[in-house]
UniProtKB/TrEMBL annotation:
The lineage of its organism: Bacteria, Pseudomonadati, Pseudomonadota, Gammaproteobacteria, Pseudomonadales. InterPro entries: AB_hydrolase_fold (IPR029058), Hydrolase_4 (IPR022742), UCP037442_abhydr (IPR017208). It comes from Pseudomonas karstica. One of its GO terms (molecular function) is hydrolase activity. This is Alpha/beta fold hydrolase. The keyword Nucleotide-binding does not apply. Transmembrane segments: none annotated. The keyword Hydrolase applies. Residues 47-150 form the Serine aminopeptidase S33 domain. Keywords: Hydrolase. Coiled coil: none annotated. Pfam families: Hydrolase_4 (PF12146). It comes from the Bacteria. SUPFAM superfamilies: alpha/beta-Hydrolases.
Length: 304
């Protein structure tokens, strides 16, 4: 499919409940349609929302309104140095995603609200107190970085990189200088602290402990979890670990091998690259449109 001329998304700033300004972009059709869904795209940890702009274009071209945004301290939601900046994974979900959920309800009143969450973005989708309004949720490689779930052949290397080197550098710098090191965006200390903890449950992460009752059960959406077999983060145990939190939702886990789509590798980040517009993006699109998998969907369902 050839995309039409790229729409010019509108930049916005939305205050979270604590007043922090969350920046992002809106793809909005000229004519309001009460039946047109609006899709919120939740980014992976320390990945800028601009990474998902082509995918947002694609959804817009297929009839959706779309919102992308950055979590506090990242991209459009960063202001100044991150040294000493207070932010955690739970802040990104409870405050930042919730602010965007409320914005969607206000700006697109009465329209269905869907969510696409990449990596931690799938976890964030379960942390907003307004989660009951989500109609459909598509996650891609979504998990919360429990090291024992990492792909076995690279587990010790990943443990050293993400759970030893990253927190040590963070301790020295007062934040993680990811851009300087070529590892994603600069990242607040609290987020690194949540990531590095070697615990198998979200509620035992530092900011998870502060939540008390976890809000995931508020989400009653039709959930499609997409995982790729060569994603070292998104193994079956990792995906299922997060899916188990969405207890009130109808859940489907689709596992795709690169060879299913004629590729040698895809990994954790490539799903949203334009090269997969005709092979992977239609899977998410069909689910958002219909709440089910298409007949010709590649991969296999993991029985739960």
């Amino acid at each position: 499919m050839n995309l039409p001329t790229r729409p010019q998304p509108e930049a916005f700033s939305e205050p979270a409940a604590d007043g922090y300004p969350i920046g992002g972009f809106t793809w909005r059709h000229i004519r309001t349609d009460i039946e047109r869904p609006v899709v919120i795209i939740n980014a992976a940890t320390s990945v800028r929302c601009r990474h998902y702009s082509r995918f947002a274009d694609y959804l817009f071209a297929n009839g959706f309104d779309v919102i992308t945004y950055d979590y506090r301290g990242i991209g459009e939601s960063r202001s100044g140095s991150l040294r000493g900046f207070k932010a955690s994974w739970s802040d990104w979900g409870v405050l930042d995603f919730e602010a965007i959920l409320q914005r969607a309800q206000r700006e697109f009143a009465g329209q269905p609200i869907d969510v696409v969450g990449h990596s931690f973005g799938g976890c964030a989708a379960g942390l907003g107190k307004s989660g009951a309004v989500i109609r459909r949720l598509v996650t891609v490689g979504a998990q919360f970085a429990y090291w024992r779930d990492y792909e076995a052949s690279g587990r010790w290397r990943m443990l050293g990189k993400w759970h030893v080197v990253m927190p040590l550098v963070t301790a020295v710098c007062g934040y993680f200088p990811g851009k300087r090191m070529g590892w994603l965006e600069d990242t607040p200390t609290g987020v690194v602290r949540d990531w590095m903890m070697p615990t198998p449950t979200y509620e035992t992460r530092p900011s998870g402990r502060a939540l008390g009752e976890l809000p995931f059960a508020r989400v009653k959406a039709q959930v499609l979890a997409i995982s790729i077999t060569d994603d070292p983060f998104g193994t079956v145990p990792a995906i299922e670990r997060l899916l188990n939190y969405f207890k009130a939702s109808e859940r489907t886990h689709l596992r795709i091998a690169p060879e299913d789509i004629g590729e040698k590798e895809v990994g954790h980040f490539a799903f949203f690259r334009r090269q997969y517009q005709d092979r992977l993006w239609p899977i998410a699109l069909y689910w958002l449109q219909n709440g089910e998998l298409g007949a010709d969907t590649p991969g296999q369902q993991i029985m739960r």
